[in-house]
Amino acid sequence: MSSDTEVQLHPLKGAANDYWARIKSGDIGALPAVLGLVVLCIVFGVMQSSFLTPGNFANLLTQAAAVIVIAMGLVFVLLLGEIDLSAGYSSGVCGAVLVILVTNHSFSWWVAFPISIIVGLALGLFIGWLVSFLGIPSFVVTLATFLAFQGLLLLLAGEGGTIRMEDPTVLSIENSNMKPLISWAFYIVCATLYIFSGLRRVYARRKVGLKTELMQLWILKTVGLLGLTGAAVYALNLERSNNPDVVSLKGIPYVVPVILLLLVVGTFVLNRTAFGRHLYAVGGNAEAARRSGINVKWVRICAFMICSVLSAVAGMIFASRQNSISPTTGGSSTLLYAVGAAVIGGTSLFGGKGRMRDAILGGLVVAVIDNGMGLLGYAAGIKYIVTGLVLLVSASVDAISRKGSGS
Amino acid sequence: MAEPILSLRSINKSFGPVHVLRDVHLDVYPGQVTALVGDNGAGKSTLIKCIAGIYTPDSGEYIFDGKSVTVHGPRDATALGIEVVYQDLALCDNLDIVHNMFLGREQKKGFTLDESAMEVMARKTLDGLSVRTVKSIRQTVSSLSGGQRQTVAIARAVLWNNKVVILDEPTAALGVSQTEQVLHLVRRLADNGIGVILISHNLNDVFEVADNIAALYLGQMAAQVQKSEVSSNQVIELITTGKSAGVTPVGAN
Questions:
Q1: Interface with chain A: mutation pick from B142, B159, B168, highest number of A CBs within 10 Å
Q2: I need a surface site. Which of A22, A63, A68, A211 has the fewest CB within 10 A?
Q3: What residues have CB less than 8 Å from A307, skipping those under 6 apart?
Q4: Interface pTM (ipTM) of the complex?
Q5: Which chain B residue shows the shortest CA-CA distance from A291?
Q6: What Cα–Cα distance (Å) separates residue A173 from each residue in A61, A318, A322, B62?
Q7: For residue A138, how far is the Cα from the chain centroid?
Q8: What is the mean pLDDT for each group of 10 consecutive residues in chain B (253 residues)?
């Protein structure tokens, strides 16, 4: 292909060619997760009519929420090429702190929640300090804290084993929905902000004479995304109660704006701040980062603290979903699902590559497998095996694409 | 000739009983390429690390821009305007060219990164060096060839209006045409008024771009001479035996 032919191409076609070239060079981005999600939805939708219903869709979101939030935290750690195996139990411990304060000591949630976040911060500081100052591999440190936090949760939960959560605000996160009108208003506000920030970026680059993304392509992407999310809002606004006269179930679950907020803040930190840039740099080449004057140890500690803080948020979501905290909260498959979610979404296990949205896309894939196979009546054993295989496939894609990019 | 931007006088450095640098003199002139040659173990790396502030010399004078200075760490050297491009380049493969050039020194607008300003500045620097080989400065470094990576590393060193740039064997791992590109770039750095120190084992490269040649022999500066005054054979003699007929050793004048 000579440069002469490139000029004659339609601009959108040129963009498509560039995209294809990127995929071939191993930079596949979110493609596997999106394709996987579409294929899984079609397969489950055909096999089980109750899968593609508004009720199940809302259920899917609330089911995936906690894993998505933990996965978001793990993205920060995975970006450095590290891992936090104890993230699941960190969420259990922080959730237990929240519930104990609210239920046993009658704190209000807005006092108890910040305290549980501080506990998360302390857990992350401890792990990060061991990894960066003592130089113990994070795998070993967090394997130890995995066990230790599990014990801590057991002690906190105490003899009875479960502590009920009775605060209505916390419970509403996973169990209540915005009213349909408010849902639409929320959607319109978000969409407007999204369009506005996109246009502002294009305008800012044009002002200093830099090349901008093709306008047609941007419009296409924006319309696609807003159309899809609009359809989701529409579906969530349909009645999903079996008996609407007794209790009506309509609107966006409250957990969705919570996750959206985390997505926006996390993406902002990763893409727009020097700290975010340093995270990528340390993950890509720690020695180069160190020589550039980046405080690598501090960056490491911060990543572990962010991970544990997000786990604490997940702990609140668990408390809301289960109406309680038990010694198994955040245990069993939670952590593996969260790591799987991040990797399936496109975050690299080798460090240096990952985004916030990976956690959401991957978390949805994991939840769809879990939910769809549950509806089809498969045993838990089969679900685990399939989820494990999907994780293996995405890890292979990660490893192969790394080879393909030649580094 | 203009005043040297960087002068070392009687630099000594020992590691325990090993006397690595003995009374070394070195002058680096703005707008000139000073090639630093010498066999393995002659002390080139130690000398460079003394200049870059990684080692502190035991004795001797470090004169920068006419003033005697003390350099206690890499930060001091950076503050003076001295930048080293090491052989392994120290680039992050997963970041793009602009990100790499500004790594650790990001331009900010309030809390956020000022991407546009960084891109404009990076573009300007690359244009100033007449770099035309990279298609987009937003592509990741992993997609670049060896010569292009070297270009990015060098461009990063000149982005901050540095006065002295030290290049550690920039052509060691490159093919013929890429070597040529990098040597052109080295020449342009000097033409932009920067004092360049080029470490190289390849005398062809040295004779192609250098203005003067400093030869180290067993920790002593055998000679620092104008390129026009010596032949390739004389330089080889300096490197292997420390002296050569017709070349006046440093300190003699």
A1: B142
A2: A211
A3: A73, A74, A76, A77, A84, A87, A90, A124
A4: 0.83
A5: B90
A6: 12, 10, 11, 66
A7: 21
A8: 85 90 91 91 88 89 90 85 84 91 88 89 84 81 85 85 88 82 88 90 89 90 86 87 72 43
What is the C-alpha to C-alpha distance for residues B250 and B253, in angstroms, rounded to an integer? Answer: 7
Q: Which residues of B touch A203 (CB under 8 A)?
A: none
Half-sphere exposure in the Cβ direction for B106 (13 Å, CA): 24
> Which of A292, A294, A347, A398 is most worth mutating to test chain B (most B CB atoms within 10 A of its CB)?
A292
Structure-token pair, residue A126: 């401890």
Phi, psi values for residue B37, rounded to 5°: -120, 165
Dihedral sign, Cα of residue B220, residue B224, residue B229, residue B230: positive
Distance from CA of B204 to the nearest CA of A (A): 30
Q: B63 - beta bridge partners?
A: B7, B68
- Looking at the complex, report in whole angstroms how far the Cα of residue B130 sits from the nearest Cα belonging to chain A: 19
> Within an 8 Å CB–CB cutoff, is residue A381 touching chain B?
no
d(CA B104, CA B85): 15
What is the β-pairing status of strands B164-168 and B82-85? parallel
Chain A residues touching B140 at Cβ < 8 A:
27
Q: Cβ contacts of residue A155 below 8 Å, gap of 6+?
A: none
B122, containing H or E segment? helix B115-128
Parallel/antiparallel/unpaired status of strands B6-15 and B59-64: antiparallel
Please give the residue of chain B at the shortest CA–CA distance from A271: B113
The tokens describing A165, both together, are 């959560």
Q: Can you give the pTM of this predicted structure?
A: 0.87
For chain B, the farthest-separated pair of C-alpha atoms sits apart, in whole angstroms, at: 63
Interchain CB contact of A104 with B (< 8 Å): no
Check if B91 contacts A (Cβ < 8 Å): yes
pLDDT at position A152 over 70: yes
A210, A349, A402: best to mutate for the B interface, most B CBs within 10 A: A210
Residue A149 Cα, gap to closest chain B Cα (Å): 34
